[in-house]
Amino acid sequence: MAVQSLHKTFILYLSIAMVFLTLFSTPTTLAANTAEIEQRFLLLENAELIGGIDEYLRSLQELQGWLEPEDNKQQNRYNALDCWMLQADTSELLQSAIKKANTYLSKAIAEVDKRAQSDLTLCRGSFYQEASDDVSAKRDYNTALQIATEINDSKLIADALSTRASLAALKGDLAQALEDFQLAQIHYELAKAPYWVYDNLSQIGNTYRRMGDFKRALTLMTEVELFYEKRGYLAELENTRYVRALILDDLGNHEQAQEVYASLLVSAYKSGNKVSISSMLVSTADSLLQTDKIAEAKKRLNEAEPMLDPDFNPDSWSLWHLFKAKAEYADGNYISALTHIKIAEPTMSNQNNFRYLVWIQNVKAKTLAKLEDWQQAYEANVAYNETQKLLASKLREQNTTRMRIEFDAARKEVENKTLKAEQTVQQARLQSLEERKRWQAVVIGLSLILLILILIWAYRQFMRARLMHSMAMTDELTRLPNRRSIQAKALQAMNAARNAKTPMSLLVFDVDYFKRINDTWGHEIGDRVLQKISTAAQLAMRKNDCVGRTGGEEFMVVLPDSTLDSAAEIAQRLCDCIAAIDMKEIDDNLVVTISLGVAQLSDIDTTVSLLTQRADNALYRAKDSGRNCVEVER
Questions:
Q1: Which domains are seen in the chain, by residue range?
Q2: pTM of the model
Q3: Which among 345, 330, 413, 430 is positioned nearest to 383, based on CA atoms?
Q4: By the 8 A CB rule, do 19 and 246 touch?
Q5: Of 363, 409, 388, nearest to 172 (Cα)?
């Protein structure tokens, strides 16, 4: 689903309460106070009011009548809501929406309204993504996230992370997408926005689907469906069922998937939304192709073709040509299949969309082989293998240990299939060449196999060295710097502070009653608590601060350019943030707090150990003072 549609679906049906408010109020009688205005803003932003677009826009217009023209912050906040409602269904409307978003954003920047800057930058980024300008979209998402983090707005932080994750997922960077989605989930829960909690949860489920963890994906999507059914969110329910249909296809339950697609297609035709209609038709065609129903698949593709706009949505256009190529290949129309491949491949290649590019190159290699163009078939197969490696590299660098192991198994399977394909190509070439060329081909084949073995060996050596370095400097459980690493960073910060004659502080903290948590809930729950605390601590810190785990439930934070007072403020913020973590998903009775000690670098601190000792002294006082507090060592 496009990012812009994710922000529009929540306004499909406005609540009866809002309709009554509109009917029984007039511009002359409305005298909304600040609390009422804030409540209306929150209802609209958090999707607590679900209704038709017309009712929503009337409610938004009514809100505008409540606002003071001189109140720039209210006006900018209204502009952000209006930005998300701008129509962008055609190329002309999309360009107009980008222009309007730029106008709104310029006003917010001129008035130094950070909250509006973050929201409007995010809105503009979603339009860039609709226009397939992924570079500009990612730039805006990162900028919005940075601003939201500066002002510590959990809802905007979550929005930025979730939209950035959606872009990463579409481009095949699933590990980065999952990481951002999970962080967004934490912030949506902190913001107490249930609609967006489940909207984001559906994105996590879809990401697991793309990773191949179909059972987990199906579990999450079922949970989301139940929430939408309970709330009566019909449009969101259809989006969730669409993802469930994709999962069913992935699991090989194609007939069930096609039944869901058929139901969704009926709804799409009723809405008249060409984007939704074409999306369902193309997905149905893909499912039919997987069950060898070629004629039906081509019928669906032909039905979708007039509704696609290559200028407005080149990604969908390229995907259509990919499935068209598959259908033509299955029918034996190899020349036609190759024509469609040539149309689809440039867009995916230019955008580095490795997930779809792999599909295209696979069909291309098989088509060229059928046309007996062995050299190009071989080259296409090599390109397919290389793209597979690029896609896998993203997962290996950022994924969890479990996912890296799963990927290694999948990668070996892909390599085996690649080797078999190369042997098939070589065998076909041997049959068409003279005896001398046959022996030359054998020599070349053996050389290639040897080269592959050498590359595999070199790669494994590189990964082994990289893993050893990572293990030496990173805590395996929390992925934070370990004791040796954080102490080294502390020493660097101390030396830098002395050279620049700037302040530097050190913060140490540990989890209160952590042994009791392990004894009561078990060490697995204790590990999960440490992971949640580590994530929250990183999010609570400034850009140049560094959090590390020194052992057990003990942590250290290096605070460059920080006086004792500012370090104490950071420590108190961290203390409050940890206490606010919702542990109900683990146990309703579980509450976690930390105690913190802070010390500023002084002339007597000649080593990291001495500075740490003073911070530890403050930590002990915090423990003695009842825990869940901050003490400083002066």
A1: 1-66 (no CATH), 483-633 (3.30.70.270)
A2: 0.52
A3: 345
A4: no
A5: 388
